[in-house]
């Protein structure tokens, strides 16, 4: 059973989250205080962290940053504000996805499942994008034999683009493919993660060659030909 | 010319200086004219009396000489007459005087052989009136005249005349003509000096006025400039205080005003920030328990088969009402964000046609939704979340009020704007209702809207959203004739709307005349 660490200062909400998640087949660790998060995180190594942005002690965004320093575990933020500023701040701190309170519990469970799903190894187990080798079985990417650490979400995003090199993905298409959203228009998620992915894999993130922006439409994988030169 | 007029209108300095100079010029003109007249008068009068006494003594001397010829043989009449004509003008290049000797009319009848003059002069300058006067009085008479030479030259002068008797009782009029050349030269010199000093005076006055007014106007102008900068938002600007005079006091008062203005504004800004913080805090504080309640109700709802019928129904009602409460909270927060001016526009290129289709699909309408759109893509730089919200609102509103007569959604574009019109043929609304349509919590038909669970904020938010895009949301309606809502947006933010691709009055509107008659009949 996947272990989910729920970090929330509101004990009732945390307990309720525990009940719902338990009922959906997850094991749950409840943490009420931002200060104690890291020890419990290190001790229990959860499969996913569900994090409330506003926490006493250190705030959620800081916790997010601390976890991201040590681990590529999926992080989903709970936020009371749909405001751009907070959402972007959370995403930039390393959160993979966010839920705005009050949310539909079944939607929460669905999102968590998407974040936890293992990419099924397909016929092509080894993909290339530019000069990057993607190993779908080992979940790693490497340039010149040197592996580059990616979060699972970033990996999924890269694989989605690399699998269909010619296709231009709209942000909406990526949201549904990678995040599991239906009818979503919040494209900030995509923009922030594409940027973070670029900063990890592009030689020059300001002049991306691997993930190209198609103005007014979306993104596509850079021409594989560049590696064959 | 217009530039001059402009500086006249806009600059006190120019106006005051110009007025001062003009007034001084007038003054100098009056004083100067008066002075010249006085001086001219004095000089001429003085010359006149000198001329009279000179002519008097000359004529007396001549008479004496003439009388002497009768008893002294050594004095020849001819010499005396020659002397009469040439007295005094010894080696002088300037003509001192001219002499004319004319016979009286009585003498002329006998002989005019002594008639003559010192130069080639035109005798007609001596008018008959003057000559009469000379003959009537036996003392000398004088007059201002123009001395005219036969060569054509004329000069201003004084004529002094009297009657002398040449032996054998021949009466002759003798006229001494004194030119005023020197006096005229003197007067014109004085004139020139007077006007030159007047000009210099005006120049000095202009400079002094310019400088003096400038000293007063400069701080005023500075104050105006700084006030303009304050208005433009640069609240830190202050005047430099110089001295303790009125201008210094103006600067101090001005600066105090600026300080108090700055304080007021920062207080208001603080208030607005507090308000935003408050909204954010309320948002968080309400949302967290609401999340818990919602999850709890979901758990109860999912377990409703195991509950007795009353509890099961309660769970159903609970979950429905929580949903409604949530929508209301979201709308309220949105409205307060607009009120706090904290709403931010996040624009992306959006295909209006496809987002309209998407919204219509999601509504799962029981009504027929007809979408009329141009074949080529209609796109605009807009905030997708807000546009989708407006469209969902308009379309679901139309569905609610269409009474099964269908809804038509039209999409059109102009050069710089796009428009979406949502038309239904249902109950519509009256003009009076139309005025309140966009008011918060206003419902045309409370029972109907409550049934659907609308918050009463939908249209208010939709209009705010449209205005945030610098677009418009207009409504048209007729009781029983349906309603037409038109959203018009600029294709890119910042471009003002210049035309309306869709008119808010629908083409299939009942003709206004007919409609009016119907109303009158009722």
* Structural class by sheet pairing and helices of chain B: alpha+beta
Would you count the extended β strands of chain B for me? 12
% residues in beta strands of chain B: 15-25%
Structural class of chain A, please? Answer: alpha/beta
Description:
The complex is a heterodimer of chains A (229) and B (522). With 229 residues, chain A is an alpha/beta fold. Chain A has helices spanning 11-23, 37-44, 60-70, 84-92, 105-116, 152-163, 171-179, 188-201, 225-228; strands at 3-7, 27-31, 48-52, 75-79, 97-100, 126-129, 132-135, 140-143, 146-148, 169-170, 211-214, 218-221. Chain A has two domains: 3-116, Response regulator (Rossmann fold, 3-Layer(aba) Sandwich); 126-228, Arc Repressor Mutant, subunit A (Orthogonal Bundle). Chain A is built from nine helices and twelve strands. The longest helix of chain A is centred in the C-terminal third of the chain and has 14 residues, at 188-201. Residues 225-229 of chain A have low confidence and may be disordered. Chain B contains 14 helices and twelve strands. In chain B, the strands form three sheets. In chain B, strands 2-1-5-4-3 form a five-stranded antiparallel β-sheet, sandwiched between helices. A five-stranded mixed β-sheet of chain B has the order 7-9-10-12-11. Chain B is rod-shaped. Chain B starts with a helix and ends with a helix. Classes of the chains: A alpha/beta (229), B alpha+beta (522). The interface between A and B is medium-sized, with 25 and 26 residues.
Task: Please outline the helices and strands.
The complex is a heterodimer of chains A (229) and B (522).
Chain A: E1 3-7, H1 11-23, E2 27-31, H2 37-44, E3 48-52, H3 60-70, E4 75-79, H4 84-92, E5 97-100, H5 105-116, E6 126-129, E7 132-135, E8 140-143, E9 146-148, H6 152-163, E10 169-170, H7 171-179, H8 188-201, E11 211-214, E12 218-221, H9 225-228
Helix pairs in contact in A: 4-8, 6-7
Chain B: H1 2-10, H2 12-68, H3 77-86, E1 98-103, H4 105-110, E2 116-117, H5 128-136, E3 141-148, E4 154-166, E5 170-179, H6 181-231, H7 246-302, H8 309-339, E6 348-351, H9 352-362, E7 369-372, E8 379-382, H10 384-401, E9 407-413, E10 417-424, H11 431-436, H12 446-452, H13 458-468, E11 472-478, E12 482-490, H14 512-521
Parallel strand pairs in B: 7-9
Antiparallel strand pairs in B: 1-2, 1-5, 3-4, 4-5, 6-8, 9-10, 10-12, 11-12
Helix pairs in contact in B: 2-3, 2-6, 6-7, 7-8, 8-13, 9-10, 10-13
